[in-house]
From TrEMBL:
Species of origin: Urochloa decumbens
Record protein name field: ACT domain-containing protein ACR
SUPFAM superfamilies, sorted: ACT-like
Keyword annotations of the record: Repeat
MF terms (GO), sorted A to Z: amino acid binding
Gene3D superfamilies per the UniProt record, alphabetical: 3.30.70.260
Amino acid sequence: MEWLDEYEKLVIRMNTPRVVIDNAVCPTATLVQVDSARKRGVLLEAVQVLADLDLSINKAYISSDGRWFMDVFHVTDRLGRKLTDGSVISYIQQSLGTWNDLPAAAPLEEEEGGALTALELTGADRTGLLSEVFAVLADMECSVVEARAWTHRGRLACVAFLHGEDDAGKVERILARLGHLLRGEPGEAAPGAVAAVPAAGVAHADRRLHQLMAADMDGGGAFPTPAVAVDGWAERGYSVVTVRCRDRPKLLFDVVAALHDMDYVVFHGTVDTAAGEARQEFYIRHADGSPIRSEAEKDRVCQFIQAAIERRSLEGVRLELCTPDRPGLLSEVTRTFRENGLLVAQAEVSTKGDVASNVFYVTDAAGNAVEQGAIDAVRERVGVDCLVVGEEPPPQICEKPTPADHGVGGGGLGLVYLGNLVKRNLYNLGLIKSCS
């Protein structure tokens, strides 16, 4: 009923989220606690804020009781340290404390002198494809403000934001040339596609990449997958999703985004990391309040989450480029990768003012480790000082693994029912004294 919808809005507006950031409770991590009225997507928004700051979530406790939402995150920076930067802490408090008055995600800000246009591309990946895409954009004198590209299971997805492309005729020519690159082989099951949309319509680049690759089906074939299981708890009307895989940055965001895109709501959950492994458990229902009811739907959820985890591949050598921006820079750099037999598995491109700050994960053409000679040759061509080899810091552990942890095989994920979950974890939300 309409009046109930208005009542829900009133409850949300009357109960501004309460955000507490505490560095004293846990010796190895900063606690971020969020209490608010429950609304659709509130968990994803909270995790997204932390992920966009490149913070590691070592533990999390999620609870939604009636109309209320409470979440506790144990977070560190990329080097495994507690948060001490006042500007970062203030940003978290402001972002999480005012989300009821903001859109679900803020789109990329428009540049002075014109709106941004977003290009969305999907297609079969091949060595040098990303280089060809950027070469077309450089040839047509397009200014790339920001771009994200992922490859997974032989497919490529890319979102690129262009500045000042408000000429409909030019946009059509860009789409035609890129469409020619992405069309794939005749009879291909999932041919490539390219579209142009206003940048304001792309609320969050990583979430959009997930959606593009899910719609593109991520190719096919047999690939090693993370351990994901779905069980039912009919007495309480929940479905229980358990995930166990290697820990990595933004893992929780990717899993929560996958559940959100499938139209599920997380009511309770826990997240733990130990010895480089992540264990996640979520109690979910459909947005209409019903649990998962069929084996086919369980299989679909498992496959969807497995693909979401695998897409953000951090395999390969991380190359960080920081240099004054200039026309054709991306085309030149990616062409150099191609000429030296390197495949770009993932790319994050951004331009702030006159400085280009880009990150590439590269492998050889077969997806294997790159020989040092190829890396040295690329750095010599691009510039040793501006293209450096970076390393992802190892996951920081704030809980020692127990012998029982090592005894759990891939087929047994150790389902913990909600009664134990509340007793063991949620009872401690206000009483946590350590990470162990």
